Amino acid sequence: MNRDYIAKHWYASVYEQFENQTHDVDFLLKVLTEQTGNQPLNILEVACGGGRICVPLAMANHFVTGFDADEHMLLRCYRRMEGLQNIRCYQADAATSGWGVDFDVVVMAGNILINIESKMDYKEAQKSLIKKASEALRTGGHLYMDFDLHYNPTDRFNSLQESSYFKGTDELGTTGCTVTYGSVYDPITQICTGTGHWELITNSGEQIIMPKCWYKHIPTLTQVYDWLSDAGFTIERTYQNYTAEPILKPIVEATSRAIIWAKKACIICASSARIFI
Ligand SMILES: C[S@@+](CC[C@H](N)C(=O)[O-])C[C@H]1O[C@@H](n2cnc3c(N)ncnc32)[C@H](O)[C@@H]1O
Fold first, then answer.
1. pLDDT grade, residue 267 (50/70/90)?
2. Ligand 1 atom with the shortest distance to the CA of 96
3. Fewest Cβ atoms closer than 10 Å to its Cβ: which of 15, 73, 83, 264?
4. Is the dihedral angle over the CA atoms 111, 113, 114, 115 positive or is it negative?
5. Could you tell me the distance, in angstroms and rounded to a whole number, from the CA of residue 277 to the centre of ligand 1?
6. d(Cα 180, Cα 196) in Å, to the nearest integer?
């Protein structure tokens, strides 16, 4: 048996079983209705995974394109989109591929800003996601971002203790859990590094241990706002923790999730505004 195949299949399945602690999809649909009315939009979802977000968008009558690097996630998406004519999903790396052009809305949800996997410098990869979102939008189009915002990353990530995040059984009968032994955060580089493994037992009783090391750049709100501005976006609305409350600056301890609705400015308008200021 291909152990890598078994492990990635298991992860894609348990991710979906556990990623239901918030009403993030309902919230996105509500924001789209509030901000754009009920007309069908041409939407791109970056890193669409198993279709948890892009399929409900298609079911709400939008024209949806999604892509993801992970074929196991994507296969789940293909199954979910069966029978829907207004959705197209494909495999691509967000860091290295072109995203297309002229979308009304680009959705970067499911915390992709903090979960991007690429060979690039992490901070550069995050900035480039925002720049690519701008390039994929028509002028006047919008970016919807939904990501973890950490009030105190030092407290959150400097922790050395064993814990398990995902646990469960997939459709192949593989059962197991993810285990982490903690992480370390460097406040100067804003890089957080963690270590752990997945421990799995297949349907035929074989044990699989997959070592896992992870590495992320944890941006501040100011950094994200600067990246948006550099990419030509104007922030129109912010929401914290899936409520109507805007994100306060400086952020408060209760803020854990940031949702940003930003408009791609007309390039001529933006440059003439600069001239007349
Ligand atoms: C936390 S999951 C979110 C999936 C989906 N958006 C959701 O909310 O259910 C992160 C996804 O990002 C994808 N991903 C990570 N890095 C990527 C990259 N460089 N290009 C494309 N997809 C990527 C992973 O394969 C995974 O499906």
1. low
2. 19
3. 83
4. positive
5. 40
6. 4
209-243 pLDDT per residue, tens: 999 999 999 999 999 999 999 999 999 999 999 99
Percent of residues, the chain, with pLDDT higher than 70: 96
Residue-level pLDDT at 277 = 34
Flag the least confident range among 49-58, 216-225, 250-259. 250-259
Listed by start position, the domains of the chain span 3-150+219-276, 153-216
CATH dotted code for 3-150+219-276: 3.40.50.150
Pocket mutation for ligand 1, best pick of 48, 117, 119 (most atoms within 8 Å of C-beta): 117
* Distance from Cα 270 to the centre of ligand 1, integer Å: 32
Question: Terminus-to-terminus CA distance in the chain, angstroms?
Answer: 65
**Measured between alpha carbons, how far is 53 from 248 in angstroms, rounded to an integer?**
27
Q: Find the angle CA(233)-CA(261)-CA(274) to the nearest 5 degrees.
A: 25
Q: What pLDDT score was predicted for residue 233? A: 98
Is domain 153-216 annotated with CATH 2.102.10? no
Beta partners for residue 91, in sequence order: 68
C-alpha count within 13 angstroms, C-beta hemisphere, residue 32? 27
Residue 49 CA, closest ligand 1 atom number = 27
Q: Is the peptide bond before 250 cis (omega within 30 degrees of 0)?
A: yes
**Ligand 1 neighbourhood includes 224 CB (under 6 angstroms):** no
Contact 62, 87 (CB under 8 A): no
CA distance 45 to 277: 35
CA–chain centroid gap for 79, Å, is 21
